[in-house]
């Protein structure tokens, strides 16, 4: 399995780390904005990590974590490493079962405990830790970070948040503003802030507690993902549903904000105000505007079915802050949304409100099997395409 | 072109003069809220400022700072955005301005730099003793120098469009008093929360005297400044949105209708006077505000500038309001908070302070009680100041080109 990355690379998190001194960043466009998929190579002196084994990728804004989980597991970090941060590979990660990374913390799951390490300080103990009880009652809850037995690990303190066992949580995706949970029965629950429609309940009000997305009732889902202000899920049948903010086309629906930006008009910025409370233009419905007989969507408050390609089903999806990447069952990678840093991988810096296939993988006869997005970049794992027999 | 070149060199010299002399003297004080990766990016920008790096590299680092902080500014509610992120955004604007103006900026670069300063002033928070405000003044000077005087296309502005003027019935007219004493205003209007039009209290404003506000005056003082504009007929409508335009663009498009754009535009509820100090100097907060509990700094001053026909739907505000009319006239209707039950406020949290009823064209089937609600009304003229007591419902329609200034106080 090989990994490729594209998009934001100012801290060398995709390639070129060895050219940077501690705490440095790139300043020229080619290195900062990687617009063509580039293979990730393990750093030379990482003899500790088994380079040939499969690894998983986790990414934040300025870093990428490579998880080596076979045998002698560990986590290796790329990207912004300052004087104060922990060494590489993260020695404290030896033996971990899973890891997630945010801009400030690396959270590690071991068989008996969880630990969150502050990436901005050099410390000998984690900022937070918790024992995992192997209680038969809650052992049904899988360890699937950020899900942990009885709850989940949030991106900021308090780290541990409990979840009702009634939810039967199977997987969880978090953004800084909202959360989307997939239950064992395929039901999708959302909570958090909702001012951009990212909760999918048809309104723009927040939800304090997990609330089922009724519009998807009866349609079992198999995968959920969150971007900064949008949500995505895949049905058992391989259909993709999107909702939330579409200002950069991250929903794959026509985006007026995108057309305006390319026409070099000023972008819309919305403010709240005491009198008008007009942070959105309509209270309860998807916002639409008509220009040139086209209907634009800037906020989609109910899930919408997105047809990426009529030919095949979606197997997995991941979201960056303002872009989305989906892998089909036929091994193609489609991306759409914000593209200023090359995170769509189409060898341009253009944003797009239409899903487009990343052609490079097709051209090189590579089959994409997984995709993981950082805030402003995208990582895809590929295997060689099997040539169909005669 | 050599003349322009020397002008532009002067521009960078002027801007450098207001920046710290070297990297060491350039502060980047940030707390724990801003991650160290972002601080590193800020340091990189600062380093570039004092080195020979290309404009492209500087623009890129500034862009990274602006993109990241923009995302923070859009996270959560505006009220709760940590001020540190707004400061990062302002630094991003500063570094972008430097990238645009170092070397040989074109006229477009200068306008883009002006716009960038305004974005920092609108969305950011003051840094380095409000350096963006200082730089804006330098950039405005450059723009004025290189802009030839436009031929006097004196469009007929005075009464371009006079909307339908309602006749005010005597029985429901808001009372008018010329220069009431502080005490009588307090006793008869403020304490009992009764509306009043105060006459003769702003005659001394420079906006009505030495610098009478006019389209030409506003263009000269603020023409190239970027301001938020509300587009669409009223904020309860589906097609309503906000956009950013220069004052010149706003005047051309929505007041003079130069490019035939349909739909209305309103420079509404904007703290223009914080952004453009020259205009702040033309107005004064009413003396009567001293009767409240707050300080002068706590008074929120908003500008309301637009063509005839702009409408603010019936709504209420949580503070006392003095609405000063400077240019043009407005039809205003007031309802007491005691009659809220007849005014059908929206249920949603977002619009609970706004009535569902279209005051001048009410749907009597959906809102039968509305006709029974007593009201007061007026046509507010230049020089008038309307006292709108706290929580009093008010509906406003401009009858012609209009500029009002509101003072929210407690």
Description of the molecule:
The complex is a heterodimer of chains A (390) and B (410). Chain A is mainly beta. Chain A has a domain at 163-255 and 295-374 and 382-389: Regulator of chromosome condensation 1/beta-lactamase-inhibitor protein II (Methylamine Dehydrogenase, Chain H, 7 Propeller), CATH 2.130.10. Helix content of chain A is 4%, strand content 40%. Chain A has 3 helices and 27 strands. In chain A, the strands form 7 sheets. A 5-stranded antiparallel β-sheet of chain A has the order 17-18-19-21-20, with no helix packed on it. A 4-stranded antiparallel β-sheet of chain A has the order 2-1-27-26. Chain A is globular, with a radius of gyration of 21 Å. Chain A starts with a strand and ends in a 6-residue tail after the last strand. With 410 residues, chain B is of the alpha+beta class. Chain B has 2 domains: 11-147, no CATH class; 170-409, Sandwich (Jelly Rolls). Chain B has 11 helices and 13 strands. Chain B has helices at 2-18, 36-49, 55-73, 83-101, 107-123, 131-146, 182-190, 215-222, 247-255, 272-275, 277-280; strands spanning 176-178, 196-199, 226-231, 241-246, 265-270, 300-306, 311-315, 320-327, 330-335, 375-380, 385-388, 393-398, 402-409. In chain B, the strands form 2 sheets. Chain B has a 9-stranded mixed β-sheet with strand order 1-2-11-8-13-6-5-3-4. In chain B, strands 7-12-9-10 form a 4-stranded antiparallel β-sheet, with no helix packed on it. In chain B, helix 4 (83-101) runs antiparallel to helix 5 and helix 5 (107-123) runs antiparallel to helix 6. The longest helix of chain B has 19 residues, at 55-73. Residues 154-159 of chain B have low confidence and may be disordered. At the A-B interface, strand 20 of A face helix 2, helix 3, helix 5 and strand 4 of B.
| SSE pattern of chain B | HHHHHHEHEHEEHEHHEEEEEEEE
Determine Rg of chain A (CA atoms, Å): 21 Å
In round numbers, the mean pLDDT of chain B is 92
Largest sheet geometry of chain B: 9 strands, mixed
**CATH fold-level topology of the domain at 163-255 and 295-374 and 382-389 in chain A:** Methylamine Dehydrogenase, Chain H
Rg of chain B to the nearest angstrom?
A: 24 Å
Determine the N-to-C terminus distance of chain A: 25 Å
Strands of the widest sheet of chain B, in order across it, are 1-2-11-8-13-6-5-3-4
CATH superfamily of the largest domain in chain B: Cupin
Strand order within the widest beta sheet of chain A: 17-18-19-21-20
Q: Level of helix content of chain A?
A: under 10%
Shape annotation of chain A: globular
CATH architecture of the largest domain in chain B: Sandwich
Cα-to-Cα separation, first versus last residue of chain B:
56 Å
Please state the structural category of chain A: mainly beta
H-E string of chain A: EHEEEEEEEEEEEEEEEEEEHEEEEEEHEE
């Amino acid at each position: 399995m090989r990994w490729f990355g594209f998009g934001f690379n100012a801290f060398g998190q995709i390639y070129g780390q060895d050219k940077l001194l501690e705490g440095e960043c790139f300043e020229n466009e080619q290195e900062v904005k990687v617009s063509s998929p580039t293979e990730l190579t393990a750093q030379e002196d990482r003899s500790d990590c088994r380079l040939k084994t499969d690894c998983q990728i986790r990414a934040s804004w300025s870093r990428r974590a490579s998880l080596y989980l076979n045998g002698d597991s560990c986590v290796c970090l790329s990207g912004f490493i300052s004087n104060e941060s922990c060494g590489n590979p993260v020695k404290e990660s030896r033996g971990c079962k899973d890891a997630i990374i945010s801009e400030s913390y690396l959270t590690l799951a071991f068989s008996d405990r969880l630990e969150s390490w502050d990436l901005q300080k050099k410390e000998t103990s984690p900022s937070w830790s918790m024992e995992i009880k192997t209680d038969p009652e809650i052992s049904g809850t899988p360890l699937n970070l950020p899900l942990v037995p009885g709850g989940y690990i949030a991106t900021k303190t308090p780290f541990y948040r409990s979840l009702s066992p009634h939810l039967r949580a199977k997987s969880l995706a978090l953004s800084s503003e909202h959360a989307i949970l997939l239950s064992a029965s395929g039901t999708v629950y959302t909570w958090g802030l909702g001012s951009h429609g990212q909760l999918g309940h048809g309104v723009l009000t927040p939800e304090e507690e997990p609330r089922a997305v009724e519009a998807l009732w009866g349609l079992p889902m198999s995968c959920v993902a969150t971007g900064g202000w949008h949500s995505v899920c895949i049905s058992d049948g391989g259909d993709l549903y999107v909702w939330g903010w579409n200002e950069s086309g991250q929903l794959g629906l026509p985006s007026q904000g995108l057309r305006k930006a390319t026409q070099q008009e000023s972008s819309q910025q919305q403010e709240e105000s005491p009198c008008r409370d007009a942070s959105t233009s309509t209270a309860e419905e998807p916002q639409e505007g008509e220009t040139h007989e086209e209907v634009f969507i800037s906020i989609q408050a109910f899930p919408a079915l997105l047809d990426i390609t009529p030919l095949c089903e979606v197997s997995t999806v991941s979201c960056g802050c303002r872009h989305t990447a989906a892998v089909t069952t036929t091994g193609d990678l489609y991306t759409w949304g914000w593209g200023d840093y090359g995170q769509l991988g189409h060898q341009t810096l253009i944003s797009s409100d239409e899903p487009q296939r990343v052609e490079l993988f097709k051209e090189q006869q590579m089959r994409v099997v997984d995709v993981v997005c950082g805030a402003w970049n995208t990582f895809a794992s590929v295997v060689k395409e099997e040539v169909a027999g005669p | 072109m050599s003349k322009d070149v020397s002008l532009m060199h002067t521009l960078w010299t002027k801007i450098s003069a207001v920046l710290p002399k070297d990297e060491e003297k350039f502060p980047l004080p940030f707390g724990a809220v801003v991650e160290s990766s972002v601080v590193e990016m800020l340091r990189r920008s600062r380093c570039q400022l004092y080195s020979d790096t290309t404009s492209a590299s500087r623009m890129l680092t500034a862009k990274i700072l602006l993109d990241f902080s923009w995302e923070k500014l859009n996270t959560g509610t505006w009220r709760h955005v940590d001020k540190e992120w707004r400061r990062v955004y302002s630094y991003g604007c500063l570094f972008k301005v430097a990238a645009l103006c170092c070397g040989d900026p074109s006229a477009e670069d200068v306008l883009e730099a002006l716009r960038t300063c305004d974005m920092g002033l609108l969305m950011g928070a003051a840094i380095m003793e409000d350096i963006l405000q200082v730089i804006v003044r330098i950039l405005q000077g450059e723009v004025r120098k290189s802009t030839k005087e436009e031929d006097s296309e004196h469009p007929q502005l005075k009464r371009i469009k006079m909307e339908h003027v309602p006749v005010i019935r005597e029985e429901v007219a808001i009372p008018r008093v010329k220069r009431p004493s502080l005490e009588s205003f307090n006793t008869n209007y403020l304490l009992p929360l009764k509306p009043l039009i105060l006459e003769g209290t702003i005659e001394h404003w420079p906006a009505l005297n030495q610098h009478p506000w006019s389209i030409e005056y506003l263009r000269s003082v603020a023409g190239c400044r970027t301001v938020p504009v509300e587009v669409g007929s009223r904020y309860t409508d589906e097609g309503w949105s906000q956009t950013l335009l220069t004052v010149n663009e706003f005047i051309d498009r929505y007041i003079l209708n130069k490019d035939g754009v349909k739909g209305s535009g309103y420079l509404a509820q904007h703290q223009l006077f914080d952004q453009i100090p020259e205009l702040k100097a033309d107005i004064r907060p009413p003396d009567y505000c001293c009767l409240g509990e707050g300080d002068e700094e706590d008074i929120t001053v908003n500008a309301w500038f637009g063509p005839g026909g702009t409408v603010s739907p019936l709504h209420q505000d949580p503070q006392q309001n003095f609405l000063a009319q400077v240019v043009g006239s407005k039809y205003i209707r007031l309802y007491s908070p005691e009659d809220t039950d007849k005014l059908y406020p929206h249920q949603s949290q977002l619009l609970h302070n706004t009535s569902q009823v279209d005051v001048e064209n009410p749907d009597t089937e959906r809102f039968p009680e509305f006709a029974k609600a007593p009201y007061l009304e007026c046509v507010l003229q230049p020089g008038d100041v309307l006292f709108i007591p706290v929580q009093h419902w008010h509906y406003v329609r401009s009858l012609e080109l209009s500029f009002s200034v509101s003072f929210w106080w407690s």
